[in-house]
Amino acid sequence: MEALNTFHKMMASMASQGGTLLSHNPKVQHLFLKRAENAAYDYIIKENEHKRPMIVQKEKMQIMLNLAETTFKRIREGLYSKNVIKQGINVFVQNMLFSPTGKTKEIIDNFKAKYGRKPPGFLVIGPTKKCNLHCKGCYASSDSNKAETIPFPILDRIITEKTELWGSHYTTWVGGEPTVYKSDGMDILDIAERHMDNMFLMYTNGTLIDKDMAKRMADLGNVVPQLSVEGFEKETDERRGKGVFKKVLKAFENMREAGVPFGIAVTPMRHNYELLTSEEFIDFFFNKQKVTLAWVFQYMPIGRGYNLDLMLTPEQRLRLLDREREILWKKKLFYVDFWNSGPIGSGCIAAGRQDGYLYIDWNGSVMPCPYYQFSPVNIFDVYKNGGNLNEIYDQPFFEEIRRWQDEYAYERVGDETGNWLRPCPIRDHHSIAMEAITKYKPEPEDEATEKWLHDEKLHEGLYKFDDRLTELLDPYWEKIYLREEKIPYDPMLPFTSSEMPEFKFRFGG
Q: N or C: which end of the chain has fewer CB within 10 A?
């Protein structure tokens, strides 16, 4: 692991200089990329500690390099503030990339000694249910009349404890709409300012990111907004409201001027999934609007007005998978789908899986993920009773899901690994989710989830979906991810490993 040690030493040196060299010196940038690539190759490809299928490891390597290359392109374009670069080195690279060191490593080792596995890597938190929009099919059933909000002292404590008890330096904000959060005279950026040892990925509709907010984020350097779009103006305004798309473009402009890195979040449905991976879409957002990354959340029939007819068919999901892998390998962009990119995360990362996450909503309810809306424990109650964040982790309902993750694929090796193209217990293995709900009887998040639980027609549709998805994706997984062999052309498998570029060092090896 010499390359990894060399990389960590380089990062420590750069951190002491505040990232100045990295932001101004192209030679230093190239050296950084070269050493990061060497370290990644040693850690992901050569060591391959968990003996994952090699194409899985290659895709992890590829997505990391894609993000690094786009990031440095944006730095050269002058689109990241000095504080963004400094925080990226101090927090992301030193504490989150590859193997943690120092105090973070000590915390993780102590947790593993107590619980038998590493802690979650982050939390997904919905600080408020309130939202200034009323989007069709919102998974959180949010609108401007919803007042449920996590009090600032509790939110502050949650972030502190996950860092001190789990060695976690990354937090994801979801909605409602995080930018409307207010409690005790504090807003969401005040939380970021109090926790400069954390990076915050914020999913937002973007309509409230004016010049002042963008400047605050650039000065902090530890907030990366992900703005939701449904396509272009027509598609976005149709779901989110008239004029929203233009406000999103204005937010992009404000963040580019201030030096804030940003991405997009998209929701593929039956009617728009081809648009969201089209050449026109990719060019507009990555090349013209200068986004750094894109996150893909396939529509899930959950929340307000859930509808199976909006969800991708199994055949559409397969076609989307092919196109997403082309974007990964040929476009060399960070375009990650929480379902189709399952191999990159080694499967489902919910329910507090090691390096994964738990989800806490505005009522303090703790759930496996924002789409698996059932809670066995409430953080408000835990704190009232003198407990801490570890108590939300140590729940039988969550442990049941983690055990399934292990048995299905996470603890398997090589070609015994379960199909990570079908990673999701709530949708791709719906019977598994329902068995856990029946066994442990966690509380539904709200009335919409209660209705969902008793909707037999919905469950029947999801079971049928799973059966067909298995028929399509298991052969794909076996032929492409487990065997790495040339196969005859099949129109349902157009992008095969034989077409995949061999791994080559981009930055000099």
A: C
The average pLDDT across 5-16 equals: 58
| Strands annotated E in 386-462 | 443-444
CA-closest candidate to residue 55, choices 489, 409, 337, 478? 478
What is the pLDDT averaged over residues 403-421? 95
Q: Residue ranges of the alpha helices (H) in 41-140?
A: 54-76, 82-87, 102-115
Q: What type of residue is 374? A: F
Give how far the C-alpha of residue 494 lies from the chain's centroid of Cα atoms, to the nearest Å.
27
**Nearest-angstrom CA–CA distance, 202 and 427:** 25
501 domain residue, yes or no? no
Half-sphere CA count of 21, side-chain side, radius 13 A: 15
pLDDT the model gives residue 2: 62
Contacts of 417 (CB under 8 A, 6+ apart): 52, 53, 56, 409, 481, 482
Q: Which residues of 423-435 are buried (b: 16+ CB within 10 A; e: fewer)?
A: bbbbbbbbebbbe
Q: What is the pLDDT of residue 127?
A: 97
- How many helices (H) does the chain have, and how many strands (E)? 19, 12
Q: Cα 210 to the chain's mean position, in Å?
A: 25
The answer as to whether 387 is a domain residue is yes
Confidence of residue 34 (pLDDT cuts 50, 70, 90): confident
Q: Phi/psi at 170 (nearest 5 deg)?
A: -140, 135
Supply the range of the domain harboring residue 361: 118-392
pTM for this entry: 0.92
Rounded CA-CA distance 226/236 in Å is 15
d(CA 33, CA 145): 47
Phi, psi angles (nearest 5°) of residue 499: -90, -15
Which residue is it, tokens 């791709």?
Answer: 428
What lies within 8 Å, CB to CB, of 457 at 6+ separation is: none
Mean pLDDT for the stretch of residues 278-296: 98
What pLDDT, in 10s, does the model give residues 195-222? 999 999 999 999 999 999 999 999 999 9
How is residue 47 written in tokens?
């060591």
Q: Tell me: pLDDT of 159 over 50.
A: yes
Answer yes or no: is 73 within a domain. no
Angstrom distance (rounded) from CA 488 to CA 494: 10
CATH classification of the domain holding 294: 3.20.20.70
- The count of domains in the chain is 1
Lowest mean pLDDT among 157-171, 424-438, 480-494: 480-494
Domain membership of residue 179 (yes or no) is yes
In order, the DSSP letters of 251-311 are HHHHHHHHT---EEEE---TTTTTGGGSHHHHIIIIIIS---EEEE----S-STT--GGGS
CA 190 to chain centroid, in Å, comes to 23
pLDDT attached to residue 8: 55
